[in-house]
Amino acid sequence: MSPRPVDRTRLVLRRAAGALVIAIAATSCAHIAALDPDALWKIVGGQCVPEEQSLGRPGQCTSVNLEGRYAILKDISGHTQHLLIPTERVSGIESPEILAANAPDYWADGWHERKAVEGSLKRTLAANQFGLEINSEYRRSQQQLHIHMDCMRVDVTDALSAWRHAPPGQWQWTTLDGARYRVMRVTGLTHDDNPFRIVARDHPDSQDMATQTILVTGAGPSTAEDGWLVVNSGLDVDNGSGTAEGLLDHGCHLADTQ
Predict the structure, then answer these.
(1) d(CA 72, CA 65)
(2) What is the reported pTM?
(3) How far apart are CA 185 and CA 178, in angstroms?
(4) Phi and psi of 122, rounded to 5°?
């Protein structure tokens, strides 16, 4: 079986010593990682946060929420894709900090910030047309936690519609794009329904969590009526992916069909 693609994050790099902005759009993710796996942290922690603190503007980021401890950054891969990035040093899905009692609810925050994607798209998305995703440690190029925010693939939304009315809190297995995923419907994204905590129940060791990927999308058009779906896979299951990013549509082609 050929290896799965790594995290396709495309970054805009600006060196701290000058005002030059380097746009990396055509290089592979392996090349990006080789250049600087800390690029996201340098942008958020080194530029966006200080500018927000001193000048009240987010700098290169779309927005910075100091109280919420996260920033939103436009990814240059795709017209609509954004990233939610902590404003403190957190390496990724394997980090124990994301499970702490006082940890930010990054998934709920990302859901609230879907307006950034909708702003680029210039239209409102139904809940099941929008997705949040994090890659495993082995399918990413950056060593700073980042949650991808973008449109869902139409065919994936259609496939996941089978769980719109599933009993909440129960895992069920399915196959998407030839990879095995388990799906759980939840009625919230905080506290016990925080997707990080849900997945960590079965993977309490950080090395196990490092192999996991999580995607969150609406169970139906309205989360108030339908709730959310937590979609999970890992490198330790048969045909597991370690990445669910391919279930997002960075071209947001749903806009072409409506």
Answers:
(1) 8
(2) 0.86
(3) 21
(4) 65, 40
